[in-house]
Amino acid sequence: MDAVDLVVIGTGGAAMAAGIEARSRGKSAVLVEHGPLGGTCLNIGCVPSKNLLAAAGRRHRAQANPFPAVPTGAGDVDMAALTEQKQELIDRLRQLKYADVAEAHGFPVRYGHARFVDEQTLEVDGQPLGAPAYVVATGAASHIPDLPGLAGVDHLTSTTAMELTRLPESLVVLGGGYVGLEQAQLFAHLGVQVAVVGRFAPYTEPEIAAVLREVFADDGITVVEERGVAVAGSADGVVVTTSGGREATGQRLLVATGRYADTGDLGLEAAGVTTDERGFVVVDTHQRTTNPRIFAAGDVSGAPQYVYVAAQTGHAAAAGALGAPTTVDYRGLPGVTFTTPQLGGAGLTEEQALARGHACDCRVLGAQDIPRALANRDTRGALKLVIDADTGQVLGVHAVLDGAGDVMLAATYAIKFGLTVDDLADTWAPYLTMSEALRIAAGLFRTDMPTSCCA
């Protein structure tokens, strides 16, 4: 017999959203977890990485102080203490934002390994847990490539790197995506000599990536924009050979080459659920899998890997599983990489706009023309606006700026609600905020003549 209305596998952002959605509809739900409560974001993703990045950023700002009249300094890092305070934050949030929330909404968490044994039956540690509908929300895990020599090296992932209690003297980061960029700068700002091997910010507008590349050079980070083809042990620790024949050497190696779905031993094949070559669950626009009783949400469904997307897909999956099909509106979806300065983007890149048939027009505003950046004495940054040349509608906003993530919230609204570049140019923008960059960049479509501070 069915025990509850909905069983959710996982306890991360998507799973919690699914449980909340079920309870808001007056339905019963239970979440199943075989690891720590809270999933990727809390335990090994957003929370610990941003906490450590904030700490590393404090040290870096003290060393790279642009105000010589206010002397600052930074000493050695107590990595064990830093890792301990990171764990204290995780433990506190696990109680406040997960355990307490589940109790408040009235859905229990059952611990054990969930596995489908056929298209109708789910077991938890061998015991049946029946429901008319299920949501799979088990997230994703680090992908380890099949690279010659890698198996023989004691390498790190973003997960294990954030558990270190001693800093290595040097580090090679294999992969230049958002995880690789954040981890590279994190350890560089803590005093480690870092090299990055791989495509640098591969999905970022070229004008924006060029600025971040210069920032990495200022930070002393070596960037080798070639594919890693082999790994070997060395007297210094590890050496990575690239497709161009170059070598990057470090005491430790951190592998950040993407993420695959965490669907191991879930019995999805027995349940009639189709997955792709990387294990991601194939879903329709309502998060329904090829088994009409099973839905999937968050990273495991191949959705953009942001916790706020996981939450939205979790709500949609639960609603669909309970008979109210719902879709997620991805218009203007923002993304932020928490480098210093932050890397942000919302909507279409110039290349994507052209591929979709837009006669697009673009402008790039350098941070030297942003009053906030001048006041900060740090003009390393840029913002790019992509618009439809015929209608003036804003298609995309991309930036590398201090506080780019906050700018992306305004950009998302502009794209989602169809604002034009004239709308942005004529919008109130508080002086000496970084979001003012949107209005200034929009003005570049009217004239390339310089303007006064607020003119």
Quick recap:
The chain has 455 residues and is an alpha/beta fold.
Kindly describe this structure.
There is one protein chain. With 455 residues, the chain is of the alpha/beta class. The protein folds into three domains: 6-142 and 260-322, FAD/NAD(P)-binding domain, CATH 3.50.50; 145-256, FAD/NAD(P)-binding domain (3-Layer(bba) Sandwich), CATH 3.50.50.60; 334-444, FAD/NAD-linked reductase, C-terminal dimerisation domain (Enolase-like, domain 1), CATH 3.30.390.30. 32% of the residues lie in helices and 22% in strands. The protein contains 13 helices and 22 strands. The strands form six sheets. Strands 3-2-1-7-17 form a five-stranded parallel β-sheet, covered by helices on one side. A five-stranded antiparallel β-sheet has the order 18-19-22-21-20, with helices on both faces. Helix 7 links the parallel strand 10 and strand 11 (222-224). The longest helix has 27 residues, at 79-105. It is globular, with a radius of gyration of 24 Å. The chain starts with 5 loop residues before the first strand and ends in a 12-residue tail after the last helix. The relative contact order is 0.12. Its cofactor is FAD. NAD(+) binds at residues 175-182, 258. Disulfide bonds join 41-46.
> How much helicity do the residues have?
25-40%
Spatial strand sequence of the major β-sheet: 3-2-1-7-17
Pairing-aware structural class of the strands and helices? alpha/beta
E-strand count: 22
- Biggest β-sheet description: 5 strands, parallel
Oligomer: single chain
What is the alpha-carbon Rg in Å?
Answer: 24 Å
User: DSSP strand (E) fraction?
Assistant: 15-25%
Q: Can you tell me the CATH architecture of the largest domain?
A: 3-Layer(bba) Sandwich
Determine the mean pLDDT: 96
Looking at the structure, the CATH topology of the largest domain is FAD/NAD(P)-binding domain
CATH class assignment of the largest domain: Alpha Beta
Overall form:
globular
Number of domains: 3
According to CATH, the homologous superfamily of the largest domain is: FAD/NAD(P)-binding domain
End-to-end distance: 70 Å
Q: What are the segments in which pLDDT stays under 50 over at least 5 consecutive residues?
A: none
How many alpha or pi helices?
13
